[in-house]
## 1
Amino acid sequence: MARKINLRIWRGDATDGGLQDVQVEANEGEVVLDVIHRVQATQMGDLAVRWNCKAGKCGSCSMEINGKPRLACMTQVAAYGEDETITVTPLRAFPVIKDLVTDVSFNYKKAMEIPAYEPPKDLKPGEARMEQVDVERSQEFRKCIECFLCQNTCHVIRDHEENKKSFAGPRFFIRIAELDMHPLDILKNRKRTAQEEHGLGMCNITKCCTEVCPEHIKITDNAIIPMKERVVDIKYDPARMFAGLLKREKRS
Amino acid sequence: MTTDKSALERHKYDVLVIGAGGAGLRAAVEARESGLRVAIICKSLFGKAHTVMAEGGAAASMGNANSNDNWQVHFRDTMRGGKFLNHFRMAELHAKESPDRIWELEMWGALFDRTKEGKISQRNFGGHEYPRLAHVGDRTGLELIRTMQQKIVALQQADKREHGDYESHIKVFAELTITEILKENGKIAGAYGYWRESGSEVLFEAPAVIIATGGVGKTFKITSNSWEGTGDGHALALKAGANLVDMEFLQFHPTGMVWPPSVRGILVTESVRGEGGILTNTNGERFMFKYIPDVFKDKYADNEAEADRWYEDQDNNRRPPELLPRDEVARAINSEVKAGRGTEHGGVFLDVSKRLSAEIIKKRLPSMWHQFYELAGVDITKEPMEVGPTCHYVMGGVEVEPDTAAAVGVPGLYAAGEVAGGMHGSNRLGGNSLSDLLVFGRRAGMGAAAYVKQTTATPVTDATIAAAAARIEAPFARSGGENSYSLHAELQEVTHNLVGIIRTGTELKDAIEKIADIRKRSANVAVSGGRKFNPGFHLAFDLDNMLLVAESTAKSAIGREESRGGHTRDDFPGMNSDWRQFNHISSFDGNQVNVRKQALPFMPKELFDLFEVEELKKYMTPDEVAKGGSN
């Protein structure tokens, strides 16, 4: 059952741009990415949009649909009213390259700054033993498809470009949490460096990231809050502070 | 102009890896760890490669779920799945080395699902005698990609500590398309391409190039592949003088989504059947019992009671026929639909809701639940899925030396993963792709590193650069020509209708003519808009690759007058032992693809002896069986 819908697409680049209205056919069961592709094939051959799998597994087609950060491949056209105009715009927290494509290199730079997994020195391949319940905590975070919708919606960077330098963002807080909870990882102080080097403290747990996560990862409840609590414990644990003092004395 | 020598962006590396899926990343790690400087090229963003779509798992005979498993059993299953057209040496290396490759990933931080003893859990899959697939729910490919992506970051962090720069020894060039592999004096010298973002051109000089570009699914209308599966590596290799082997063999995965139309082709993992899902037609009949071929009769249950018992007791029962190799199941579904027993949307039913509780389904098949719920409005814990065949994997690919992954005939060129041919014969078993890309990704990295260390780099000449640049500029210089989107749609119609799951000689002849016509017209594709992130411009190059692949597939298919694995001829329905002795080799003469027969290497006695002679008689000629091995 094809019908015509009104689509409003942001077109332009870093220098200039604006919204353009088009009418396009939509068929039963189609998602927003389908109608964008139809516009591309029939009306705007050079319309830029990122996509790969069209099945919600690669996290490439992130954009804002009627102002909400979403994957275009997982957003049904039928979710909007018959007469409603669907407006598609590029992610707002990242610089526009062209049309719906933004420069997300910020995220790859941050990824490089998170210290890698470190297995026990004497562990031999094939010898690892882990309980399913123990791997599940980290597995939740490893479901992340790196769509960066959480990064885009997080107001710490969305509204404050200057924070980008010192703030890794929710995607990388779950990466740190994943390593911190990894049953085999031996690198110490992941929580503390999350706080001191990656800006965990700047998050004020408004849960916007959790709301937009297409994988339904409980970013705030299961990663950010537990790390924040533990950082507080470590920093203000009197026993640890005393042990720390002793250590410092010994060294001097 | 970018052809101006001073303006052209140039890079020099020891090894250039084209493709950042599983095979490419594994190759890059290996080449870097042997001390070389490596560039990784990806057509999309880093970490988005089609490998993330692999769901079920990676096959490796670790023996965690059944201690009877070992490399010999895995080797036998792989050869059977491929109907003995596999290159025996590749199947041997793959079966022997897969467990080490999986354990290695664990050392890099991968978190597979566990057994009760805390080892890596292994699940059942079609054609595998024992539970063999290491997995993470139904998102195993994502785990592989992320683990290797993070391993590369770990290597970059080590380089930063040692050399002060993350990218001193390994750099990822994201959203860059390679249009040509460059040779000088008959040897690899580098590659040429453009940044998708800006359209500006880039020259890479490197003595070794590893092609790891994956598959060709986008040549077809209904496919599980993402937009990247346009056969780039197959075409680049052909144009660089390499051969493709057995391009007639395409795997149609039996279970793709069929409704609504916008999701047609999206993969429904084989794990649904591995976990107990059954296939029924619209009469409610569990039809797979009717489709067990003679060669598999002693391995698969012919009644429901035994098939159901197998899930609890695998030692005393035969496997359910839903777990036959993919080619068998795809053909069966196709026949049911053709006989009028399919759904109104042209599929059959796949139901897991009757065997497993809602809670277990959501835990073991989370992305399937999610995918059907959000895209089709179907709750798979309560109702059946509608499924049908979808173009999933190409068994054919670049002809390589098994041990080094070196492309035959082109010094310095390597290929690994789906783009390489030979490993899977006429049909790949599920789970053997993720292990393939690890085993041969690593071997390609080793092979290229060994080659680089004993060769000298050849500089790319100005004439070579000018020719490559002219080709990129061409579509912009034309106006009012053909539209690349329409030509692509036309090609997909031709392959779907004439080179699809069931083929005939007359239709293939028709296909070859039609593909030639589209190719002629594609030389006249014009592009609107500028160079900056222009999908119409990108498609013009992808289209060129897909056309060469389609030509190679159609020409190989018309030559092979038998049915085997992923090649079914309505006019030659049986498997023919004489044909098993030959591969089809495609080469490119600059004008068209030519296909010839080449003798398939015969396995040595120690591998031959792993099989019962009675079984080999089903596949081989009496002479071959009497010979008993090549040595």
## 2
Amino acid sequence: MQPLTNRVKVLEPKPLNLMERLYLPNILKGMMITFRHIFQKKATIQYPEQKRPFSSVFRGLHVLNRDEEGRERCTACGLCAVACPAEAITMEAAERKKGEEHLYREEKYAARYEINMLRCIFCGLCEEACPKDAIYLSETFAPANFTRKSFIYGKPDLLIPDPKEAPDDFARAKGQIEERKENTRKNLTA
Amino acid sequence: MADEIKMLKVTIDNITIEVPQGTTILQAARQIGGEVAPPAMCYYTKLKGSGGKCRTCLVEVSKGSEADPRPMPKLVASCRTGVMDGMEVKNITSGKVTDARNGVVEFLLLNHPLDCPVCDQAGECHLQDLSYSHGKEGTRYEFKRRTFEKHDLGPYIQLHMTRCILCYRCVFVADQVTGKRVHGVLSRGDHAEIATHIEKSLDNDFIGNVIDVCPVGALTDKTFRFKNRVWFTKPVDAHRDCPNCKGKVTLWQRGDEVLRVTGRKDQWGEVEDWICNTCRFEKKHVNDWVIEGPTKIDRHSVISQGHYTGLDKPKETFSAVHGGRAPKLLMDIHSVSEVNRPGIALSEIQGPATSDTFNIDKQA
């Protein structure tokens, strides 16, 4: 067959010399490398006892935010749902009644808010679209499960703990979100 | 014989058009169409006397007429200025106009609460469009925005006075369409507000049209309040045999549910026919209407994100291909999801849904 280029090099396999035919020195050489790695720093960690820090731009499970008084920030404006490329977000709005001012920030709120985690691609466009700082992607993984049903996340699953009742949980759920927002802002202005 | 209408030549943004005498610059520009037509917040073709208040339609007249070619000293409101023969008008080609319009938008937004996420008008709001095309990102206003005591205008119409830009369109509608006006602009200056004198409800049979003419979200449909966002509803043209009005409307549907009924609007956002309250507020069932087809929506509008082009529902093809065997459902979304549950018809609730609506449903 005619070679396509003239760069082809024909190699003649050289016969093995005595050292090579013994095999043992090379096997020992390989064993030495393996043995050396026992004392080196490990690349893996013991999950779930140990956890790696998240990247500052990590996009995990959604959280519905509350304001500092514990009122839900979401007003069901639908911008997250229209921004969602996977059409994972649905909601139903309701009007705030008298006496519910401590629960909802604005006169309209999301009575139902659902994210279909089977559809969600964690792109973070909902967070970007939200004018009320109400939804953001946290530093948690979506847990694995056996049933499809458990992946339809409603408001009870998504809402952040009340900062007045459980400030520690609130802070944990919020994570480094403020820091991240600050970084984004800096990057945008820079 | 003597009443022959004189045709005048007018050049707007270097496009020349002949219009009959008595035409305003705005009308002439709309005949050309497209970008050349100045935006209008208060002017409404079908309302006599409207216009001249919002100043968004300002244009520069660089040549007064053939007889008197001097330019007009100031920018003029195109909706109220008549065309002269040989007039030369600059709209988007004039830097002065864009500048002035930016200023006008800033003024209009001074007291505007910018509660678009809550407002039902968002997505079809003229002020929103205008501020996106001309507005600045920030505000320079440092004072408290004006607020008002809430006025109840009856079971059909919701008034949000803080959003109002005082265009007077609704006042003209009440005067010219209903014939008997019970609301108007009370007080002056910063305190000026749309209200009825001593709490009255607006209940004339054609008063619902004030919702359609309102360029902002100051007057909205209470029966549609918070039911859905405009861009998630499907606009279809429909008509019915109505004894009071022409019955030609646009239905805003969600599935088969009719969430809202409005008049049909043309490309300038003006209704084609006034519709009566019965059509607008009472007929919220598909069977009340003869559906003609999807409404044409400008592709730049957020409402067009639904891409409704036909009325045919998508068919299940699986069983046809698989010899009648139905597809195996791994999960019925309604068995888990609380949203859009088949049993609840939002269109049947008179006002906005509240926590009661949803709690009652939970017990059932």
## 3
Amino acid sequence: MKYWLAFWTVMVSLVGACRAEEWSIPKVGNQLTFPRDHGSHPDFKIEWWYITGHLEGDGRRFGFQATFFRLGQRPGEPEPEGAFRSDQIYMAHMGVSDPERGIFLHEEKLNREGWDAFASTQELDVRNGSWTLQREGSQMRLVGGVRADAGWELLLEPTKGPVIFGEDGISKKGPDGTASSYYITFPRLKASGRMSIGVDEFEVTGSAWMDHEISSSQLDRSQTGWNWACLQFDDGREIMGYVLRTEGEKFSPYSKLVWISEEGELTHLTLDDYDWIQGGDWTSPVTGATYPTSPEIKVPDLESGKRRHLQLRPVMAEQEMTAGAGGVSYWEGACDVYCFDEEKVVGRAFLEMTGYADDIAEKLR
Amino acid sequence: MREWKLTAVLLLIVALGVAVFLSIRLANKAAVSGFGMFTESLTGQSDYLIRPKAGDIPNESLSILRRELGGIPLGLFPVFEISGTISGEETVLRVMGLDLVAMQNVANYSQGVAAPQSNARGDDSGPSFLERGDLVFSGMAFSEAREIAVGETFILVLGDRRIEVEMGGILPENPNLPSIPENLLLVDLPALQEMSGRIGVSRIEVRFPNGEFRKGIEEEAAAKLAEVAEANDWLLETPAQRKDSVTQMSAAFRLNLTILSGLALLVGTYLIMQAMEAAVIKRRAEMAVLRSLGVTPAEIRKTWLLEGLATGVIGSALGVMIGIGLAQGMVGAIGRTVNTLYYETTSNAIRPEPGEIAFSMGFGVLASLVAVLVPARDAAMTPPAQMMRQGSPGGGLVLLRKRWLGVVLVLIGWASAMLPPWISVSGSIVPVGGYLASVFVVVGGSILIGALFRPVAKLLKWLGQKGSALRNYTASHLAKPAGRHLLTAAGLAVAIGMSAAMGILVASFESTLTAWIGQILKADLYVSGGGASSVENRSTLTKDTWQRIEAMPGVEGADVLNQYRIMIDGKETVLGASDYNDDPSRTLKMIWLNPPADTSERNLLGPEGDIYPSWISESFSRRFSVGKGDSLELPTPVGVKELRVNGVYADYGNEAGMLVMHRSFTREWFGDDEVTQMALYLREGEDAERVAEAVRGEFPSLQVRTNARLREDSLRIFHQTFAVTYALEGIAVLIAVSGLGLALAGLLIERKSELTTLKSLGATRREIASGAMTEGLGIAVVGMAGGLSMSFVLGWILIDVINPQSFGWTLTYRVPWSMFMVLTIATLIAAGLVAYVVGYRNAEVKSDQED
């Protein structure tokens, strides 16, 4: 088994050993134009289209994740159109949580740019194998699933946004200008469609979140991973927040938290303004990594002016995306947002934790 | 001979028969299973295969397929497979192009085995196939056999292309998969397309996802796939169907081998019968006593049947062990034959499959039981002790004395030869009538040869007039042959008959082939791409290459041929595209079975409207039931074309059949101007070897053969094909001759009292031995004469019934007289020697006992 491992890891080094300088880096003040910028940016090294959401149907509740990654292999002139290109690799992850049955399913697909995976540079049209994400009028259509265990086809309608995070249109992840991204988000999408788990099929409705992030280096050298969350409150507001971890489990000053008002206005906060308290350790039986799955967040509520004490409570502990050939394991799961002040659940969230099972910075630097 | 010795010999006979039978079957299977779903050794088996009916599947079709499947979560894995070789090597390599990135997904699909999931970091130290287009990968066996380590470079030859490649890594063996063949090279798919200059794929492997809802997806997917395949004119098959359709190509060859191996067991059956009969006779007294004591005939019969069963089971078990060993030695030879004649295979290790073992054991036990049936009946019919005199000769095998039965069987055999062949569901043709006829003729013939004993005895008596009285006396035994004589002669006749019949087949084949080659090979030099050995390999010469060769000094003209594998009516065959327009005198120099009415250029090049002229080989004509004047639908990358068959020609090179047409059409349809072979005609007085050297010098990757060399090679391949056959014949004759010794030993034991008398009359051991030799020779002569007579009939069945039906080849009947002579002399010498030794030894034992 070890030989296989050695062989394939040499074969597929996900992100080529090229220097970031040769790739484009996000520029301050650059104006994003839509729908073009919902499409692909092959001159950047890393790009992803990320959708998570909470669905309900027939009294059941599901959480889902669908992420399409594009990983540039070498900068410069793109290869000519063809069925098997080597300059872009597409990785996609799908996951679904079924807390009632205690089942978490996930799958990874890896394909080169060409006949079975591509992303349009004109607008939103991403594909990897049988999984697709495309614009359909004012909506998006997501077709995905996990092997023959689950399948879904969802229509996603933005109720606000898109919003663009960061100052001057770029989201900085470190002092070095290269560790930054264009970060485009639809913070609330109305979801409807069907979801099948095993042999059961459900008509589902719910809400979803979509990020589209474009960069050439996501992490600064000193950083080891991140804890990221998107919170959708029942009152129509959202929070996107994260802490970037550095060696010794310290938080980088580039950690951020953003309030999104009902109208889509952004308020950026820094670590001086909010607290992120790790807690609720869960150890993965697969990777052995220990994830703090129930973090508490203390943050000023800009509307009421009061400081709120929130906790993310996962719908189930086991929501770890264990690595395929892509080689990245992380925890990505549906949570409830519990408010200690009100003593009740005030919204739903998705929590993402990287860098616990392996050195993600190595992959995404 | 002592009881245990007899038992030992009996067991050995059964064991040998079963061993030969099993080993042939196992070796066969291994040779065939080596056929290439090479991907299986890397990623496990797929659920469906999509293949083009002709040419490659263009890259563009891949995205169309995915689009048409919509959201159905199928894994689609394109495979591009070509053959090649390594510079300076003769062996053909299977070069397989897989998308090495997409292969990572394989584990999510049914039966897929891929890299284990890991959390380890990627190691960027080695080169990546994404950055380098010259990396190849192989199993350990390849690397060790050629001493090519990771990081070393070598020259890979694909057709006329020579590419410097680097060994990028050794593929690890997976214990759950077949081992990685030694002749397999793995290349990233786009890199292989670049290397070969062919932008397309050979097939698409389809896999269903694992999971709870798999069943539902399977149904939906199968229906959708069938629809898409239909719309694109592709073939949709399961791997099992694919294997069938490929192995079917060599089915006739393998069936022949199995039948030949059955022969060994048939001869064995005769021998067991013989030995059992001997035992019955020896224990007649015992039987008689048992009868007197009130044991019923049914009980006695049961005892004997039990003994037969025990012999069968133990002997077969022994045979299985020997057989597995034998098979290991044989698989190489069979594999080479299949390789040369049919398709690329790798000689796999023998897998002793329980099914095959059970089948062979069952066959062995059944044969033993059948063999013991008649002697058991004899034993049961032994009269009680008071009614019999000790040593009275047994009743013998009643059946073997019924001449009328022999005549009836031979007649039935003749009638069944007229039966039409049976065509299986998969379309393979089995000449059932021919095989039935052979069996009837063999069994009937072995009964009829009993009639030969009297004249042979007379002959010996006449010869013996000048010899010793003793020899004369022994010969008289032959005039009234015992059951044992009949059995021995029958066994020998069967072995000789079948061997001689194969001899006739081979001789007829060879003379026909030689004549055909002489007619067909008119050019001075033949050029083909490197790494091509059978029709399956399409190893091509680019337009630039063949045109440069055509223009080389000394070359007067060239015919070029391009071959494509195509599917017609769901069966694989070959399309040959040829240019004969350079010189009308060379046009259509073929052996015509049904010649075209008009061989002018207009006939070759002029389509009538949308109907194109073509001609077909005899095998093609039989396989697809078309003849001159018929029309045919040919699948091409640009759609189905209608052809008219203008003539049928003889072709002994390819039993899959060949459809030939002018290259100007196919060039357009298949969109390539490459060729697979060239025939060069040299200027008057040019030295072929010198020009061949010049071509080799300029194009070192090409195979260049002179006319003489090609003829030699063709005949060598031909003989290679029959190598296994020769070995089998040898074994059959060997078994039969040892049976002769066994029979004589039994007879001599039976005549103990006679021998004692003879000795007291002053007969020496030598005289007794020479008497036994006379008797043995008599039996051998009967067996030889009967066997050779049988062989003429069997030869006719092979050549006029079985061969045309299963291979579609017309052969001229030739009898290999010299081979017959050698066979006769060798058998007689062996029989005489064995008989003498047996006689000598038995004479001694008796006199010892006397004292």
